[in-house]
Amino acid sequence: MPADTLPLCGIGDEAGAPAAVQTGALNELGWPLIELRSVDGVALADLDDAAFDELAGSVRAAGLGVHCVDSRIANWARPVTGDFDEDLRELDILAGRCATLGTRYVRVMSYPNDGLSPGAWRAVVLRRMAILAERAERAGLVLLHENCAGWAGASADRMLQLLRYVDSPALRLVFDTGNGPAYGYRAYDLLPQLTPWIEHVQIKDAVVEGDEIRYTLPGHGECRVLDCLRHLIDRGYTGALSIEPHVKVRPHESATASDDETRAAFVACGRALEELLARIGKVTV
User: Fold this and answer.
1) Closest C-alpha among 123, 169, 170, 121 to residue 149
2) At what angle do helices 187-194 and 156-166 cross, to 10 degrees?
3) What is the pTM of this model?
4) How far apart are CA 268 and CA 259, in angstroms?
5) What is the DSSP pairing of strand 142-150 with strand 171-176?
6) What is the DSSP string of 85-128?
7) Listed residue (242, 251, 239) closest to 270, CA to CA
8) Which among 69, 45, 56 is positioned nearest to 19, based on CA atoms?
9) Distance between CA 68 and CA 105 in Å, rounded?
10) Residue among 151, 152, 204 at smallest CA distance from 173
11) Which residues contact 245 (CB under 8 A, 6 or more apart)?
């Protein structure tokens, strides 16, 4: 790949629930990669074998590579007091599915609190994440912690504490440009401290309107997406950039838009990202 090129990607279920809509949106953009989270509302790890094989075949037939899979491990729906075995089971399932899909990246979070003291919350998170990273390393996977829900989600200091404690090549970071408004911080302010450990980037943008958050095309909100891109590229980032628009649908919430609407919004967000990259001299692939 030429030195001035970055691979582009998108979280498929942001374009629509069916696999054909997801792969079709990436093909329409002409991008080489997809990030997989769910199909027809079913999480990747919950698909039965036949449905998973059909998905893998659809991705191959579309000529796409899979850059990352987005798990529910330690996410907003799995608090720190929940059943840890649920996360271990999901990781084991995804290890086999990642091998089939040709990716080693699994997106994770770091457990929202559920009534524990700050110290107890931290201790459980660190212990669990160390166990998960050890299991991921044995499976040839890399867990990518997102600046989202959980103990370390909104704090660069906590993310660095997590990385130091786990001390494993199987734990790195995914940086989402647009998560800050939902969690009360400015993502760009975290970026300088985290850059060396970022191996994947998700792109979204938003504006805060009173008590509401409205998601926008990349570069049209308050999240300094262009500044984030400049910072990363100037410091040698060569990983994928993956859109997660949230403009028409958030798959973990009630979907009200049609597949045509969500696909069109997804493609529009992709074109907006291409325009931002063109402004800083990056070729899109």
Assistant:
1) 121
2) 30
3) 0.95
4) 14
5) parallel
6) HHHHHHHHHHHHHHHHHT--EEEEEE---SS--HHHHHHHHHHH
7) 242
8) 56
9) 5
10) 152
11) 14, 204, 215, 217, 265, 266, 269
SS3 state at 70: strand
pLDDT value for 284 = 53
Answer for the pair 108, 71: CB distance below 8 angstroms, yes or no. Answer: yes
User: Token pair 């980032």 is at which residue?
Assistant: 237
**Which residue, chain included where needed, has tokens 């990436």?**
26
Contacts of 73 (CB under 8 A, 6+ apart): 87, 90, 91, 106, 108, 109, 132, 143
Which candidate, 4, 6, 2, places its Cα nearest to that of 243? Answer: 6
Tell me the backbone φ, ψ of residue 137, rounded to 5 degrees.
-60, -40
**DSSP states along 23-53:** HHHHHHHT-SEEEE-EETTEEGGGS-HHHHH
Distances (CA, A) of 163 to 57, 142, 204, 279: 35, 13, 24, 33
What's the CA gap between 285 and 177, in Å, rounded?
20
Q: What is the pLDDT of residue 1?
A: 40
The 8-class DSSP code of residue 4 comes to: T
**What torsion, rounded to 10 degrees, do the Cα atoms 62, 247, 184, 237 define?**
40
CA atoms within 13 A of residue 226's CA, in its CB half-sphere: 14
Q: Which residues are paired to 65 by β-bridges?
A: 33
- Blockwise average pLDDT, block size 10, the chain, 285 residues: 72 96 98 97 97 98 98 97 98 98 98 98 98 98 97 97 98 97 92 97 95 94 97 94 85 67 95 95 62
Tokens at residue 142, please? 């890399």
- Here the tokens at position 81 are 């007091």
